[in-house]
């Protein structure tokens, strides 16, 4: 297993998934790809827009927006597709993946980690990025929704489990 995708939403439930993913990554030398998907995205074209954080910038550099390249305190975001979303979504998504990254670095030093912030429908983004990045597995948390809430709202985890092309481990 070379690469594990771990979608994170900033909830405490996700730390359990991070523990499992870190344990597997340490054992098999796998890379962890942390993903946060921000909704509230208005697509200009069909598909998922996602950004990979590629280099660290100073807080001063993060205050100067660039037309096709947004920056913030923790890294640079490079667009793969075009879309409209707010800087607030970028900052929120970046904060979530960076918190997850710090957690892994503190508890499992030496694990190789990459982070991505995506914009779109969460289940679709998770599946698309797992395929695009050649992930061997997805490890994700579930929030334990009851039957009625899951039926009326749908479940990201449920959609991923039933449509992903790679194995999915669900942590409760």
UniProtKB/TrEMBL annotation:
<feature type="domain" description="UspA">
    <location>
        <begin position="1"/>
        <end position="172"/>
    </location>
</feature>
<dbReference type="InterPro" id="IPR006016">
    <property type="entry name" value="UspA"/>
</dbReference>
<protein>
    <recommendedName>
        <fullName>UspA domain-containing protein</fullName>
    </recommendedName>
</protein>
<dbReference type="InterPro" id="IPR006015">
    <property type="entry name" value="Universal_stress_UspA"/>
</dbReference>
<dbReference type="InterPro" id="IPR014729">
    <property type="entry name" value="Rossmann-like_a/b/a_fold"/>
</dbReference>
<dbReference type="Pfam" id="PF00582">
    <property type="entry name" value="Usp"/>
</dbReference>
<comment type="similarity">
    <text>Belongs to the universal stress protein A family.</text>
</comment>
């Amino acid at each position: 297993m070379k690469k594990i995708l771990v979608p994170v939403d900033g909830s405490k439930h996700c730390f359990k998934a991070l523990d499992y993913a870190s344990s597997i990554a340490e054992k098999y030398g796998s890379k962890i790809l942390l993903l946060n998907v921000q909704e509230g995205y208005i697509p200009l074209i069909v598909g998922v827009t996602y950004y990979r954080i590629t280099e660290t910038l100073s807080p001063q550099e993060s205050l100067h927006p660039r037309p096709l390249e947004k920056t913030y305190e923790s890294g640079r975001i490079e667009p793969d597709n075009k879309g409209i979303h707010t800087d607030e979504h970028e900052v929120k998504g970046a904060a979530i993946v960076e918190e997850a990254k710090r957690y892994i670095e503190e508890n499992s030093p030496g694990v190789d980690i990459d982070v991505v912030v995506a914009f779109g429908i969460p289940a679709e983004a998770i599946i698309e990025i797992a395929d695009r990045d050649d992930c061997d597995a997805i490890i994700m948390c579930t929030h334990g929704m009851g039957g009625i809430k899951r039926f009326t709202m749908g479940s990201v985890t449920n959609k991923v489990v039933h449509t992903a092309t790679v194995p999915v481990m669900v942590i409760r």
